[in-house]
Amino acid sequence: MKIAIITDTHYGIRKGSKYFHDYFELFYKNVFFPYLEENKVDIVVHMGDAFDSRKSIDYQSLEWAKRVVFDPLSDYETHMIIGNHDCYYKNTNNVNSPELLLVDYKNIKTYSSSKTVNIGGLDILMLPWICSENYKKSLQEIKKTKAKIVMGHLELNGFRATRGHMMEDGMESNIFNKFDKVFSGHFHTRSDDGKIFYLGNPYELFWNDVNDDRGFHIFDTETLTHTLINNPYNLFCNVYYDDTPYQMIKVSDYKDKIVKVIVKKKSNQKKFDKFLDKLYNSGAYEIKIAENFQVFPENDDFVVDDDDNTINILNRYIDESEVNFDKGQVKKIFEKLYREVYEVE
């Protein structure tokens, strides 16, 4: 039997941005539900963070989520694990958005505490967000379950929290040694060690996601294998300007996108302005310009590649610094600040 796994959908993100929800809708209408119907997949597991805000959701976002996602999903057996963003409190999962907002959907089973369930003839341990209130019970369930597969919303050491940043202060992954495979949400980028798989979220949410494959997965309960189904729609785009003639830009590529113009060389302001004018006329949703790269002291040994993202650059620079300080702690501070900036935007 085939199971569709999706995670970290974050409905209501950016204060209920209609623009972001329109972008999400492309995925659900043109990719996710058509694939399930065409391939006769009738079971879905959502591994947490269905909703974005811990405190509230606006009416427009809730209406959108029901119309675009949960109403079409009512034809499918759905298992929903509670993630940290779903929970009002940080020390307990008891008050959470899926159990409050989706009570009318009889096809949805929610898991705010750990439980072993049988899906398609296979025992699976469902592990919601582990907090202080459920920590001991979660470890007990991990120890006693006969299931060989785990699906959860976990924060484990040694996996990429975002591109360029490895988690260093989460739970130890060796507590899952007894299992054949562990699938998790929480981290939005894909990462695995051959046993534990962070599957990543379905679409881009922040600048750090640019050019990072997103989508959902199909899990086979008989072979215990999983197949990724990529989302072809992107939202963020980098445009590199290197005295590039404005005629060379294909503006149709940037309609409805969030664009960052990275200026590598600009020797003629008028030509640059023409380049920008054409880009502004593309119908891009938003355009940012980055042309001041004197962030770090000049150092011929420190090379920034075109594919490097901001956090990766910062982390490498911190690692290569000769200053004596707690580098891990500094990287955590920068990661937190970086995410806060883009969550506000």
How many beta-strand runs? 17
Count of individual helical segments: 8
Mean pLDDT rating = 90
Largest sheet: 6 strands, mixed
Reading the helices and strands in chain order gives: EHHEHEHEEEHEEEEEEEEEEHEHH
Enter the CATH topology name of the largest domain: Purple Acid Phosphatase, chain A, domain 2
How does the helix and strand content classify structurally? alpha/beta
Helix content: 25-40%
CATH class label of the largest domain: Alpha Beta
Percent strand: 15-25%
Task: List the defining traits of the structure above.
345 residues; Purple Acid Phosphatase, chain A, domain 2; 3 domains; six-stranded mixed β-sheet; 8 helices; 17 strands
Explain what you see.
There is one protein chain. The protein is an alpha/beta fold. The chain has three domains: 229 residues, Metallo-dependent phosphatases (Purple Acid Phosphatase, chain A, domain 2, 4-Layer Sandwich); 57 residues; 52 residues, no CATH class. The chain contains eight helices and 17 strands. A hairpin with a 2-residue loop joins strand 8 and strand 9. The longest helix has 21 residues. The radius of gyration is 22 Å and the shape is globular. It starts with a strand and ends with a helix.
